[in-house]
Design brief:
It catalyses: NAD(+) + (deoxyribonucleotide)n-3'-hydroxyl + 5'-phospho-(deoxyribonucleotide)m = (deoxyribonucleotide)n+m + AMP + beta-nicotinamide D-nucleotide. Keywords: Coiled coil, DNA damage, DNA repair, DNA replication, Ligase, Magnesium, Manganese, Metal-binding, NAD, Zinc. This protein has 672 residues and is an alpha+beta fold. It folds into 6 domains: 53 residues, Helix Hairpins (Orthogonal Bundle); 223 residues, D-amino Acid Aminotransferase, Chain A, domain 1 (2-Layer Sandwich), CATH 3.30.470; 76 residues, Beta Barrel (OB fold (Dihydrolipoamide Acetyltransferase, E2P)), CATH 2.40.50; 73 residues, 5' to 3' exonuclease, C-terminal subdomain (DNA polymerase, domain 1), CATH 1.10.150.20; 81 residues, 5' to 3' exonuclease, C-terminal subdomain (DNA polymerase, domain 1), CATH 1.10.150; 71 residues, BRCT domain (Rossmann fold, 3-Layer(aba) Sandwich), CATH 3.40.50. The chain contains 24 helices and 20 strands. A 5-stranded mixed sheet has the order 2-11-10-3-9. A 5-stranded antiparallel sheet has the order 14-13-12-15-16, with no helix packed on it. Strands 5-4-7-8 form a 4-stranded antiparallel sheet. The N and C termini lie far apart (74 Å).
Length: 672
């Protein structure tokens, strides 16, 4: 066969295989046997091997895998992947409906309901109709690039055809392992004498992050798509976007329903409460969305969740088993978590041996006693927790439970801070789990990102006496590391390179990595932007700290307490000497002008000439600050059409100046 003949045959086979894939996933039928399908795939692969220049990224043979990925690159999501608020009752759904009604000012609206599949969220980007990137949700802002593995999932189109396909768009969905495939995998593992897999959700998650995509292909993952994003999309409702995905050949679960009102939503939930168990995929609830995209935009978002959507969770499965003992775990902040050791019991497809007891208050509330028979549930059907006691089976000789008074690791007397339920070990400088936990937090990908250093290595270095705090990382030597079990020349060099590279991490990541109580990633960024240098932050007064947008009294007191301690001052000094970044990069704050003079703005509503993202960029580029919520510290509310009445009411009550899009444009021209 010559090159011209091969081109024609490759095109024919590709189109035929794509057609059979479409029939199988979109029409639930198959005109060929699995053997015939596999034979066509083998013919195509053979031709592509003979004529490698004819092989394309969207070829069906990409689904076989074979790519080896040692490190998954980080992907910044163009649109944040937010989580949904959860509800567990019809009354809470009706409360959600009242908030929607109020937010829309009485305008008519409808809902769109979909089953919530228990899998792994995925983002797929298509350019010119071809899949170019697949990413995990990660922290919602950034995830891992898993494109090679996603290409092996047969229900994810590698190329789409049809009318009015945007130049670039994003599709989101849920990757899952079908229950039948999970059962087959466990049968194979059991026959081979290997440990069985825990559950389909964890298996899907672990499979997506495997380094060898051929193994991913063999596990036959599936994927339902449920969201379409992109600037060129012309659809006006979520329902229309779902139909558009179906027309383009995406695998959409046919379990959705448009509902006229909240009572129809509740009826849909009741219908699927038991019917969902007939599906070949685990589900744990229902997702309810306002159907109109304009109304979604009008309702907007909280810091974590959209106001136009909510997740209804079905009641978790429960089991009864014996409480054999209570042990205690010490977290990196010193928080003590009691854990129940249970008589093993099967629950929601997995064997449960341990479960969270949360804190002393919860143990007292339930009057738990070692030896009791207790009810165990999976919170969100993932994390086991003890929910109650079967008093009819209590032995009268069981003694009331006594919570420990001293740290189980270092013996220090525990404390309880005002307003908090947890006990804490205050010995942050000498309690082993806290020291190791703080170092693990410091090296985390979201902080200093020292990926060549892991939990086990930290443990070994701590036990050798080389690590007592994060500053000790920068004093480690080749001779100290090479003596560790499992380390050879290359791994030592990689570790030292990783530590050296972390010195270039931005100041805000260092600040987050220090593990100061209540200073999460977002708070660290706001503090870094405001104070710009560690010295300014360390010298800030309480009043200066609470002037920072969204920094409250609790965070301010925590910062002052941290920087007052001599040992922390010494730690910062050592990190400075080691060469870590102690100030923000000035380029981050280069602006076109200072017309807005550091004033804070909340943006709400729909605008004629600019999108919300454009307005945010314009504010930042002209020396202003974008704030997520209305408070007394706010300077301006930039209000568009269909702005929620609650925001308007709060702004008026606090005396916040409300400006229009035209007012804002005038500010940029003439200043404030």
């Amino acid at each position: 066969m010559n090159r011209e003949e091969a081109t024609i045959e490759i095109k024919r086979l590709t189109e035929q295989i794509d057609l059979y894939n479409h029939q199988y996933y979109q029409e639930s039928r198959s005109d060929v046997s699995d053997y015939e399908f596999d034979q066509m795939m083998e013919q195509l692969a053979a031709l592509e091997n003979e004529f490698p220049e004819l092989k394309k990224n969207d070829s069906p043979t990409q689904r076989v895998g074979g790519t080896i990925t040692k490190d998954f690159d980080t992907v910044i999501h163009k649109h944040r992947m937010l989580s949904l608020a959860n509800t567990y009752s019809a009354d809470e759904l009706r409360d959600f409906d009242k908030r929607v009604e109020k937010g829309l000012g009485g305008s008519p609206y409808e809902y769109f309901c979909e089953l919530k599949f228990d899998g792994v969220a995925i983002s797929l980007t298509y350019r010119d109709g071809v899949l170019v990137q697949a990413a995990t949700r990660g922290d919602g802002t950034r995830g891992d690039d898993i494109t090679a593995n996603a290409r092996t999932i047969r229900s994810i189109p590698l190329r789409i055809t049809g009318d009015q396909i945007p130049e670039e768009f994003e599709v989101r969905g849920e990757v899952f392992m079908p229950s039948t495939m999970f059962a087959l995998l466990n049968e194979q593992k059991e026959a081979a004498g290997e440990e069985k897999l825990a559950n389909p959700r964890n298996t899907a998650s672990g499979t997506l992050k495997m380094q060898d995509s051929s193994i991913v292909a063999a596990r036959r993952l599936d994927c339902y798509l449920y969201s379409l994003l992109g600037e060129e999309n012309s659809v006006q409702s979520h329902e229309a976007s779902i139909h558009q995905l179906e027309q383009w050949g995406f695998h959409v679960s046919q379990t959705y329903l448009k509902c006229e009102n909240i009572e129809d939503v509740i009826a849909y939930i009741e219908k699927w409460e038991h019917k969902r168990h007939e599906l070949d995929v685990d589900t744990d609830g229902i997702v309810i969305k306002v159907n109109s995209l304009d109304q979604q935009n009008e309702l907007g978002y909280t810091a974590k969740n959209p106001r136009w959507a909510i997740s209804y969770k079905y009641k978790a499965e429960s089991a009864l088993t014996k409480l054999n003992n209570v042990v205690y775990q010490v977290g990196r902040t010193g928080s003590i978590t009691p854990v129940a050791e249970l008589e093993p019991v099967l629950l929601a497809g997995t064997t449960v041996k341990r479960a969270s007891l949360h804190n002393a208050n919860e143990i007292a509330r339930q009057d738990l006693r070692v030896g009791d028979y207790v009810f165990v549930e999976k919170g969100g059907e993932i994390i086991p927790k003890v929910t109650g006691v079967d008093l009819t089976q209590r032995d009268s000789s069981l003694l009331p439970f006594e919570y420990i008074k001293n740290c189980p690791e270092c013996g220090t007397e525990l404390v309880r801070y005002e307003g908090e339920a947890n006990h804490y070990c205050p010995n942050i400088d000498a309690c082993p789990p806290q020291i190791k936990g703080m170092i693990e937090h410091f090296i985390h990908r979201k902080a200093m990102d020292i990926d060549s250093l892991g939990e086990q290595t930290i443990k070994l270095l701590y036990e050798k006496g080389y690590l007592h705090n994060v500053a000790d990382l920068y004093d480690l030597t080749y001779d100290q590391i090479i003596e560790l079990e499992g380390f050879k020349e290359l791994s030592v060099q990689n570790l030292l390179k990783g530590i050296e590279a972390s010195k270039q991490a931005p100041f805000e990541l260092l600040l987050f990595g220090l593990g100061i109580r209540f200073v999460g990633k977002t708070v660290a960024e706001k503090l870094a932007i405001h104070f710009k240098h560690i010295d300014a932050l360390m010298g800030a007064t309480f009043e200066q700290l609470i002037e920072v947008p969204e920094i409250g009294e609790r965070i301010a007191r925590s910062l002052i307490s941290y920087f007052e301690k001599e040992e922390n001052q010494l730690l910062i000094s050592r990190l400075k000497t080691a060469g870590l970044q102690m100030e923000v990069d000035a380029k981050q704050f280069e602006t076109s002008s200072d017309q807005l003079g550091g004033k804070g703005f909340v943006i709400s509503g729909v605008f004629e000439r600019h999108s919300r993202d454009e307005l945010k960029d314009m504010i930042k580029d002209n020396g202003g600050k974008v704030v997520s919520s209305i408070s007394a510290k706010l300077d301006y509310l930039l209000a568009g059409d269909k702005m929620g009445p609650a925001k308007l009411e709060k702004a008026n009550k606090l005396g916040i100046k409300i400006i229009s899009e035209s007012d804002f444009e005038e500010m940029l021209t003439n200043g404030i």
